[in-house]
Write a structure and sequence with these properties.
Length: 157
C-alpha cells in the first residue's frame, strides 16, 4: 500500500488530526472515546485522592491528585494529537499556565513528601487546579475573557 493510499483511506475514516505515536491514526470516534475515558479516569483518581487525605496520608493524596491531573491533561492529546498538544502547551497564550501547572505538580509532591504540611500541600493542589483550568480554557474561544468578566463581577470590580 502506497503512502498516498494510506493517507486517503485514513482521511475517509474521519481521522483528520495529526498522527499519534508510531504513526498510528485513530478515527474521530476513537479519539473522543480516548479523551472521555482518560478525562473521566483522571477526574475519578483526583477525586479518590481525597479519601487518602481524610486518613492523613498526605503523600498518597498528593501522588494521586497529581496523577489524576496528568491523566486529565493527557486526555486532550487524543483530541488534537499528542505532538500538537505538546507544542501548543508552550505557545505564548498558554506558556504561563503551563509553567505554573508543571511547577506546582512538582512542588505539590516535594511539599507532601518532605514537609508533610497538609495546608501547604492543599494550597499547591489548588494552584495546580487553577493552572490546569486556565490552561484548558485557552482552548475554548473567548472562554478566558468570559472567566475574567465573571470573576470581576463576583469580586465587584
Amino acid at each position: 500500500m502506497a503512502i498516498t493510499d494510506y493517507m486517503s483511506s485514513t482521511a475517509q475514516q474521519g481521522s483528520t488530526m495529526d498522527p499519534m505515536c508510531g504513526g498510528m491514526e485513530l478515527t474521530r470516534t476513537q479519539r473522543f472515546y480516548g479523551f472521555g475515558i482518560c478525562f473521566t479516569l483522571g477526574f475519578v483518581i483526583s477525586l479518590l485522592s481525597s479519601i487518602l487525605l481524610t486518613f492523613g496520608a498526605i503523600a498518597g493524596f498528593a501522588v494521586l491528585y497529581t496523577t489524576g491531573n496528568i491523566i486529565s491533561l493527557v486526555s486532550t492529546g487524543f483530541l488534537v494529537g499528542f505532538k500538537t498538544q505538546f507544542k501548543k502547551m508552550f505557545d505564548a497564550t498558554r506558556l504561563t499556565a503551563s509553567i505554573i501547572f508543571l511547577v506546582t505538580m512538582v512542588t505539590t509532591l516535594v511539599v507532601a513528601f518532605t514537609l508533610e504540611n497538609v495546608l501547604l500541600t492543599l494550597l499547591c493542589c489548588f494552584i495546580q487546579f487553577l493552572a490546569l483550568f486556565w490552561y484548558s480554557l485557552s482552548y475554548i474561544p473567548f472562554a478566558r475573557d468570559l472567566a475574567k468578566k465573571m470573576c470581576g463581577g463576583v469580586l465587584g470590580a
